[in-house]
Amino acid sequence: IHAIEQAMLGVTHADLGQAVLGEWGLPDLICQAVGQHHRPDMPMSATGPPALSGIVRSAAVIAALFCREIPPGHLEDVIAQCRAWTGLERRAVEAVLQALTGQVQETASLLSLNVGRTVDYAQLHADAATQLAQLSVQAEQARLLCTRRVEEARMELARLNQEKTAILEVASTDGLTRIPNRAAFDQRLAEEFERARAKGHALNLILMDVDHFKRLNDTYGHQAGDQVLRAVADRLRIIAQDAGFVARYGGEEFALIVARETTEKVRALAEEIRKAVENTLVNHEGRQLSVTASFGLACPPPGRSFFTPQQLVKAADQYLYRAKQRGRNRVEPA
Fold this sequence. Notes:
Helix content is about 60%, strand content about 10%. The protein contains 12 helices and 7 strands. It has helices at about 1-10, 15-25, 30-35, 50-65, 75-85, 90-110, 120-170, 180-200, 215-220, 220-240, 265-280, 310-325; strands at about 205-210, 245-250, 255-260, 280-285, 285-290, 295-300, 330.
């Protein structure tokens, strides 16, 4: 209100009060105390025990409290301010507040003034407790609401992450064999290639092709071919799940990325897979279909590596072609 008074009138009621009291001939100490009672930036007078300016300031905030310009919930703040400004103990300040209603009514009666219904300290104290309780309840409700919203946000984030994971899995999984698809293979090969180049370890690749798959499809139908591919993928996944990254490369071709292994171990792994496929029988419409596969390995010598992932794939593909040329159902280089 003081800023509004200053802006609209160029003067505040405290300034006017000081001027009027001066015109009435009151002592400068009283005039100055009234003039600065709304200006906490100005030093309080040190005259009198306690300082008069502190008493006037205290009177102003107490009046604002009892007139409800200051909410009852700020009662403790008002008491603390009065103690700081006057140097009185809490009991003394409370005694002033408790006696205030009676003194107001007595003074109003002497001056024949109608001040209406007054608020006593007990009611003010009760209202303060009620307001603080309401604020506490509101704060707790806000906390619970915030907690619920945080939990809802966490659950929504978890749901979105699950959806993202599911979408990525669908996008990177071969629908027929349920192992990683060509896109997943290309990405993983690039990652493993960079890791191998940075760490200096070996990176090997096994390419595998189901033998005579087109003839099997033409003879028994595509459903039989799908069954064979699923069976081969299962064997490959079971044997190589801890050895490397398995993927369907395309059509009847599969790939296995093997890092940090010697050529001998990679060749032994390919031979183990070859035998497992050879011993697989696929039941299709009462028939037992046998299947074999050919393997091409790209295993760079110790201390050497291919310059690009594509060169690694090309080398494995060349050995796979040689395995087919040499009779199929074999691993090359032998």
